[in-house]
Design goal:
Sufe protein. Chain: A; binds FE2/S2 (inorganic) cluster; 143 residues; alpha+beta; 48% helix; three-stranded antiparallel β-sheet
Length: 143
């Protein structure tokens, strides 16, 4: 089926930003849709800004999917890169769709996948850092 994507979506699809993988990421999020078979991975590297806030120093994605999935993955990374983690985890699909100037209704779910992949990457980071903190405390006690 030929879908009517607008120019912004087509630009993002044909020239996506932040595509690829991060070596030794702080967190990885993966989501698949069993109906269409598409998969999105989001990789994040967390660092701190001058004020000590946790920020997404880097973010990349790999998407095996439709044009909308690639365009929304690219857009979510653009909106999240360099931002505070607390901001990035609140980015929702409506913001992505708006930034892309709209999506055909049957493609809205692609944008929810992209934001969910980012959320999962942040969750993964939080789990790992909690685990790391616990291990540090254990090691401190041993010393
Ligand atoms: Fe499955 Fe777009 S059709 S993510």
């Amino acid at each position: 089926m030929l879908l009517n994507y607008n120019k912004k979506v087509m630009k993002e699809f044909t020239n996506p930003k932040n595509m690829g993988e991060i070596k030794n990421p702080s967190g990885v999020g993966k989501i698949g849709n069993p109906t269409c078979g598409d998969i999105i991975w989001v990789y994040i590297k967390v660092g701190k800004d001058k004020r000590g806030n946790e920020i997404l120093k880097d973010i990349k994605f790999k998407t095996f999917g439709c044009a909308a999935a690639i365009a929304t993955s690219s857009m979510v990374t653009k909106l999240a890169k360099g931002k505070k983690v607390s901001y990035a985890e609140k980015i929702n699909y409506k913001e992505i769709v708006k930034s892309l100037g709209g999506l055909p209704n049957i493609k809205i779910h692609c944008s929810t996948m992209a934001t969910e992949a980012l959320n999962r990457a942040i969750l993964d980071y939080k789990k790992k850092s909690r685990k790391g903190n616990k291990e540090n405390k254990k090691n401190d006690k041993k010393r």
